[in-house]
Amino acid sequence: MLFQSFEFLVFLTFVFGLYWFILKRHMQAQNLLILAASYFFYGWWDWRFLGLIVFSTLIDFVVGLKITAASNQQSKKAWLGLSLLVNLGLLGYFKYANFFIESWIDAWSYLGISSNVSSLNVILPVGISFYTFQTLSYSIDVYRGDIKPTRNLINFAAFVSFFPQLVAGPIERASKLLVQLENKRIFKYEEGVAGLRLILLGLFKKVVIADTCALHVNDIFANYADYSGPTLMLGAIYFGFQLYGDFSGYSDIAIGTAKLFGIQLMTNFKMPFFARDHGEFWRRWHISMGAWFRDYLYIPLGGSRGGKWMSIRNVMIIFLVSGLWHGANWTFIAWGAIQGALFLPLLLAGKNRRHTSDNIGEGRWLPTGREVLQMTTTFALGTIPRIFFRSDDIQDANSYIIGMFHDLKFPDMHRTPIPYIFALLLVDWFLLKKFKIESAFLRYLIYGFAALLILVHSTINPAPTFIYFEF
Amino acid sequence: MRKFIINLFIISSLFSLVLLAVPYATIPPNMATGYDNGFNVFPLDSISVDILFVGPSTLSFGLHQETLLESGFDFFSFGLHAGTGPLYVLNETKRIGRDARITIMSPGYPWIFNPQEGDLVPKLLSHSRQTFPEVLSNYGLRNFILSKAWALAHHLRPWHSYYNPSKVRDGFRWSSDIISRRGVIRTQCKPTNQWKTTSGKNLERIEKRFADFEKAYDLESAIDFSFWRQHKDQYTHLLPTPMRASDLADQYVDVMDSLALELSLPLLLAPESCIFPDSLFCDRFHLNLEGSIIYSEMIAHAINDSPSVD
Predict the structure, then answer these.
(1) Which residue, among B2, B4, B120, B124, would best test binding to A if mutated, counting the most A CBs under 10 Å from its CB?
(2) Closest Cα to residue A375, out of A360, A394, A354?
(3) Which residues does chain A have within 8 Å of residue B22's beta carbon, measured at their own beta carbons?
(4) Which residue of B has its CA nearest to A213?
(5) pTM for this structure?
(6) What is the C-alpha separation between A282 and A273, in angstroms, rounded?
(7) Where are the domains of chain A?
(8) Chain A closest CA to B196's CA: distance in Å?
């Protein structure tokens, strides 16, 4: 079920009504409703994969209890190992089995030896990377003693499968989401309104911006050999905004929907295209994934404690693994490697934490010339890995990049998304500056206009899904 | 909670009113009526055919279903608005083309006039989808409701005429140029239209376009037609579009011949044989029912005689 579909509107209205009007005084029943609604929401795509979520949920629920009950460190480790084995095993099989088998076959055939291994026809379950990370973090947190395990299976299952963020995040932690599910929720008018606003913003980003860009990106990337360099540059720029509109739009809708149920999810995007360097970009882009890798991979690997070289190694591991997390393709690994390469100069110069606050254009309405230059450079450099992210294979990505510098004819087509991109940047800038429209009439006029744009564009742009569902 | 629900209800109601008012204010009635006529909309992914026709709207108007089916082949006609450009049309048909044994490409002369018109695609799709939501392949309840709203809007404004009457063709629907359809010809497509474009001035303009095309014609401009990736057992033919005798037919014949040579693709019909009297056209580009039967008979014979047919 897609957030921008009519079915979701009906589904949300129904669940919202039951949640607040019928089950308002019964917290446990509310959680059971969330669980049932979440399974229904997921099963709408493919009910066969519900078994995977249930299996993963049961394993980590039991593991959590067993870790706490274990009398010695070795038993705790063994139980944690089981959780890691099951979750990473599921992820490995469903997401990477084909990739590794095909890479194996390719490697042998490169050496002129034919391999008898044949690839598998494995279907990737939607959102598997997200919910396995969420359950995994629970077991690790229990093992570390950061949280106490829950003894309520319904609450835990609702935490794993909470439908607003089930298929594309934000990747939540038990210490935040599970705790909320274990406590009574109260509906607050301001939160409800904020939730609706976020849903509207998310739909605007997805349907109006991302899907408009997608029409052009799909054409340019599919026929890159036929287009001039500047058109390819435009295509690469559009893809950045498509990806941002698509993914951050999903996150906004997820966070907004959760608010309607009295639940707060973590912020996943903070106007990343205003980042002044690559370090700041990664503190603003897909924050929940970055935080996950930091807490469960970077720090256990030693973080920055082992000196410069250890930091470099760990940073590269994080980026490469996060590339692989996105998809089983060499293009994603190349994406991760380039992201790491863009980050390393900052790390080596000790400037990777230069910009840690929201002080862009501080004390003024517009950014300074220097900031604009920094933002543009950061965006332009970030475009290169995004080309790998979008391309079907490394060869295509390389050809696309080379093509960008050939035939430097100013494009006379594919210019439609330009005003959309400016509109998105303007919205983001107002949000960054916490600009408030005092006039309620004007505010609602803007909301109405945005809703109208969403409706009109939803009939124009035939984009059936969100990009991150594939991960 | 109460305040929230009441406010939400008021805002939604206001928005719904605006929603109904917008199409009322913008959708021309002769488009809205098209909703009642029904369309053949196919989910593209599910289509598997022997013969695939790819080209502009001259296919939608030029292929007569019964005549072609009599040839014993299952066929699918992907006749899109010429303004979408060949690249778009070919991209859209790639999925079906993978399974079709014979692909018949009909390079419409609007494409030759202006082969880089691909940027019209979003506009045309938008136009068609807003006007005829049912042409969407993932046709859903929301679209159904919207289309009803638009039909209502039409009934409230029956007197309004969007087009200049001289440009309205009987039975013409914008969406028929956009969506794919299985050789459906509209019987009401009569030669009643008086839309004349072949005035002396226009002829001069079109002549210049042909000359420009031939001058600039090279492999690069031909790539639009030639990038089709075929399997071993698949065949492609070029099909000349029907041409009015009064409309620069000779030049078009030359262009078709040189295109076939350049692409090394066989012509299904001799371009000369596709020059028809003006009386077989319902407008400048599109055949009427009688014309479509003649044209389709020629195509059916040619397919049966083709070496690509077992």
Answers:
(1) B4
(2) A360
(3) 452
(4) B122
(5) 0.66
(6) 10
(7) 6-176, 190-276+355-470
(8) 30
| pLDDT over 90, % of chain A | 49
Residue A243 class from Cβ within 10 Å (0-12 exposed, 13-18 middle, 19+ buried)? buried
* Cβ atoms within 10 Å of A109's Cβ, excluding its own: 11
Any residues with CB less than 8 A from the CB of A352 and at least 6 apart, and which?
Answer: A277, A279, A343, A346
Per residue in B277-298, pLDDT (tens digit) is 888 876 677 777 788 889 989 9
Contact with chain A for residue B1, Cβ under 8 A:
yes
Please say whether the beta carbons of A401 and A390 come within 8 A.
no
pLDDT for position A455: 74
Q: Which of B3, B14, B119 sits opposite A414 (nearest CB)?
A: B119
Q: Please check the confidence at residue B27 and state whether its pLDDT lies above 50.
A: no
Q: What is the pLDDT of residue A167?
A: 83
* Residues with Cβ within 8 Å of residue A121, at least 6 apart in sequence: none
The pLDDT tens digits of the residues spanning B228-274 come to: 444 556 678 889 888 888 777 777 788 788 777 777 778 999 989 99
Measured distance CA(A6)–CA(A17) in Å, rounded: 17
- How many alpha carbons fall within 13 Å on the CB side of residue A146? 14
What's residue B18's pLDDT?
A: 72
Q: How confident is the model at residue B209 (pLDDT cuts 50, 70, 90)?
A: very low
CB < 8 Å from A in window 152-181 of B = none
Catalytic residue set of A: 326
A142 token code pair: 């229990």
The verdict on B142 touching A (C-beta cutoff 8 Å) is yes
Q: In this predicted structure, what is the pLDDT of residue B138?
A: 33
Distance CA A459, CA A455 (A): 7
Q: Where do we find the tokens 């990736």?
A: B229
Q: Is the pLDDT of residue A429 over 70?
A: yes
Model pLDDT for residues A196-236, shown as the tens digit of each residue? 999 999 999 998 898 888 878 887 887 788 788 898 999 99
Q: What is the 3-state secondary structure (H, E, C) of B165-183?
A: HHHCCCCCCHHHHHCCECC
Phi-psi region of A126 (alpha: psi -120 to 50; beta: other; left: phi over 0): beta
In angstroms, how far is the first alpha carbon of chain A from the final one? 16
B52 to A139, B73, B98, B183: CA distances (angstroms): 56, 10, 10, 11
Spatial distance between the Cα atoms of B124 and B119, rounded to a whole number of angstroms: 9
Which positions ≥6 away from A76 have C-beta within 8 Å?
A67, A70, A143
Q: What is the pLDDT of residue B59?
A: 78
Residue A150 amino acid letter:
T
pLDDT higher at A189 or B74: A189
Q: Which amino acid is at A389?
A: F
Q: How far apart are CA A16 and CA A18, in angstroms?
A: 6
Three-state DSSP at A231 gives helix
Write the ipTM. Answer: 0.70
* A28 part of contact set with chain B, CB < 8 Å: no
Mutate to test the interface with B, among A223, A228, A414, A454 (most CBs of B within 10 A): A223
Task: Choose the most confident range, by mean pLDDT, from A155-159, B216-220, B253-257.
Answer: A155-159
A95: left (phi over 0), alpha (psi -120 to 50) or beta: alpha
How many Å apart are CA B248 and CA B275, to the nearest integer? Answer: 10
